[in-house]
Known about the structure:
- By secondary structure, the chain is of the alpha/beta class.
- It has helices at about 5-15, 20-35, 60-70, 115-120, and strands at about 45-50, 75-80, 95, 100, 105-110, 125-130, 150-155, 160.
- The chain contains four helices and eight strands, in the order ααβαββββαβββ.
- It starts with a helix and ends with a strand.
Amino acid sequence: MEKTELRELLRRRLSHVSVADVAAASVTIAERLMREIDWQRVSRACLYQPAVKWREIDLYTLMEWLQEYHSSIDITILPQMKNAIIPDESFDVILVPLLGYDSSCSRLGRGSGWYDRFLAGQPQTIKIGVALEVQQLDFVPVELHDIRLDKVISEQATYLRRD
């Protein structure tokens, strides 16, 4: 399938997921992120403002936990706007929303290319996608400009990049 067809398929899948199910998965994913990242080694983290209508994972639980237990970490929250200015500072960890992913951590976004441009300028950063298991695809077509993630964490599993 082409990216356009995959995006439509994923939008249909997500339309059947309740906001309550996304909220529950968000807590589970936050707990996994708390355990799976060595936060002692992080000084700058980049999170995002979730779009509820798109059923994006809400990182609020993680952000509260970071503020309480790792208050020295400088946290940047990216806005939802696809024309937002790309941050020029470097991050240790970037958490990325996505529309779809495959088991090798190829990411399918919403099509604007904003995250690919942002992540391209962060070569040393750990890039982690967060999504629901229902967003997994067998295969995501990859183009030259697409930036693969190091990990994708869902409510059920952690997928590691395979080259």
